[in-house]
Every structure is written in structure tokens, then in C-alpha cells.
Predict the structure.
Amino acid sequence: MENLKARIAYLEGLADGCEIDETSKEGRILVELIDVLGELVEEIQSQQEDMDEYLDLLDEDLSDLEDYVYDEDEDYDDDFDLYDEDYDFDDDLFYDDELEDSVEIEE
């Protein structure tokens, strides 16, 4: 962006150095074009700063959301252990010895 500002400043200096007649049609057009270019660069820079600010806010919000989603899961990981020694699979309600004895396997 600074390069564009420098180039526009160079054009302004060049126009002043060439002593362009601002009363002629061509002179007014050139001077006005240089002014418009300068304003465009300033507007683009302003919009870019606004966008950077918005992206920073969005990044903070996303970071907060990630902390909420992923850190909350880590809190519950301590409460549940898949290989808990206190849990006896033989006493599980899904396993029924009587049902196994009553089913005959045909060969």
C-alpha cells in the first residue's frame, strides 16, 4: 500500500514539475485523475484496516469457541476411564448366562 502512495506522490510531483495547465481540458483531467487515485488508495487502506480489525475479532471469537468445545471435553476425560478396573464385564446386563445355556447350536 505504501508503494501505491509513493507512486501517486511521484505522479503529483511529476504533474507539478511539468507545469500542467490546470485550466486546459487535459490538465484538469490529469490533475483530477491523480487526486482520485490518491483518494482510492486512502479508501482501500481504510477498508483494509477495518477488515484486519474484523478478522482479529473473528479470530478471537473462534478461539473462544474452540476453547469451549475442546477444553470442555478434556474436563470429562478424567471422569471416565475406558479400562476402569472397578467395572466387571461379567456382571454386565447385556450378557445372560441362562440365555446362552438355552440356545442349542445345530451342527
